[in-house]
C-alpha cells in the first residue's frame, strides 16, 4: 500500500494472523549479480536486482537460517543453514484495472521504462528472477482477487520448517488471507490473515509506473510521503495454517485472497513441503547446436519442451500448450514435433495435452542461405485445468523462469580445403643404380578438397612419378596423396624439382609448393691390367715390365689401391698417373678416365713359374711369369782343334809311360 495509507506513528508488534503467530524473518540474504547482499540494519538501502537466496528466523541462540536454493554457494556458512528449495507461486494472471491505484515498482538501478504497455501484465513482476525470488520488482496495491493453486501436502508433513515465505514491500492496513482447502472447498486447518508491521529488515529505493500508462517513471519522493520503502518478510510453517498429520492428506488447493492493498514482490512456497500440481514447462534449445550450420549445406537440429511439473499441461487450459521458436536463420524451419508418450513417438501440435514428465521434441531442418549470427528465441507455455468443488481451478506454470530461452546460431561459410606439400624426399642417386624417392601432398583444411593435385616439375627424363590416389582426386580433410619417384639414372647431374599441389577451392594457397634438388653422381670402376708383365723370364737375365690401373667409371676413385704381389726377384718401381705423368703412390685417388702405370724390374735367380696377383680398386687380376734356365753354348772350330790336340797329347803321354815300364 502506498504511503498515503501509512500513518507514521502506527507501530504494530508483528504479523497479525487469524489463528497463529507467524515467525518473523529477522535477516535476509540476497544475490546481487554474484555479490552477497546481507543488510546489517533496517536502514540499509538497495536499489538493484536482488535474488533472495536465504533468510533467518528468530534471533540470538534460537535463530535458524534457511536457504532458498537460488544460490547456496553464496550463502554465509556461519552459522550453518538448512538447505531448502523455495519457488514463487505463479498465478496465471492478475486482474489489471485500467485505472486506479495499482503501481509497478522497480528498483531505481533498473533501466527506466519510459511508458509500459497499457495495461501491463502484472504476474511476471511477482515471479521474475531465479525461482521467482526477485525482491526489487513488485506490484503495489495488487487488485483484490482470489488466486487458486492446485496443491498437495505430504501424508506426514514437516510442521516446524518454513513452508511459505511472504514479502511485503509497502505499507498496508488490510489483511491478505491465505488458506488450504479440500476437494469440496472446505478450509483445511484455518485461514491465516496477514498484516505486516512497518518495521522492516532493509529498504529499497523504488521507481514507480502507473498501470494505466498515464505517466512515465516516478522518481523516489515524487508521490506524497514516499521515500525508500521498508522490506518485510515473514515465514509460515504448515502448523501455522492448522495443518496436522491427520488433515494434510485432504488438501487439494491453496488460496491467496488479496485485499487490494498488497505490496508484493513474491509469495514463495517450500517445494519440499508443498507440492503445486501444475506444469513446469521448460524449453531447451541446445539440440540446435548438435550439428554445424554451414551455408548451402543441409542442416538438422532439435529443440525440446519438457513438462517438469507434477501436473499436466491441459489442452483446454489457458495459456494453451505451446513449444515454438522464432527468428530461425534464413532457410530453416520447424519441420514437426513429436511427444515421447509412446513408441514410436506420435506427432504433437500446439494446444495438445502435455502430461507431467513428458517431453516434446521438435525438428528444425533446411539449408541455411545466409551467413551471420541469428538470435533464436524459444518459448513454451501451459497450465493445468482441473475442477475443485465444481469450480474450475487453473494452476499455471510453477516456474515461468524456464519458459523462454535464447540461443545465438551462427551460419558459417563452408569449410575450405588447404592443400599443402607435406614432403619432397629426393635423396642423391648414382648412375646405373635403381633410384627411389618420394613426395606427398595433404589436405590440412577443415573442408574436403575437390580435384586435389600433387605433381612434380623438373624431374630428369629417366624418372617416373606415380601417385596414390591418382590426381586429380577428392580428398577428405586430413587425406594425403603419396607419390613415389623411380627409375635408373643414366647420367650424372642435378635437377631442381618443384612439387605443386592445388584444389578447386582453398583457404590458403601460400603453402602449395615444395622443392628439392635431385643429385645423381657417377660410380668409380678401377680395372687392373697385368698384361704389361712379360710371362717369361730367364735365369740371370734382366726382366722388365709394368702393370696398370685404369678408372673406367664415371666418378673419381678416392683412396684406391693399385698394386700387385710380385715374385721375390721382382721389384716395384715408380708409378705414374697419366695423362699428367705425375708420380702416384698406392693408395691414392684415380680420377675418372685416368690410368696409373707402375714399373716392375728384376733378375730371375731360379727357374720356375711365379703367380702375380694384382688389385685395382675392388677388381683383381692374375698372371704367371715362368723363368727358364740359360741355353748351353755350341763349340766353334777352334775349340774342336784344341780338344783334338789335347786328346793327342794325352795319348802320347800314356804311350811314353808304358815304354818306361817295360
UniProtKB/TrEMBL annotation:
The keyword Plastid does not apply. Pfam families: IPTL-CTERM. Residues 1-22 form the signal peptide. The keyword Signal applies. Keywords: Signal. Residues 633-656 form the IPTL-CTERM protein sorting domain. This is IPTL-CTERM sorting domain-containing protein.
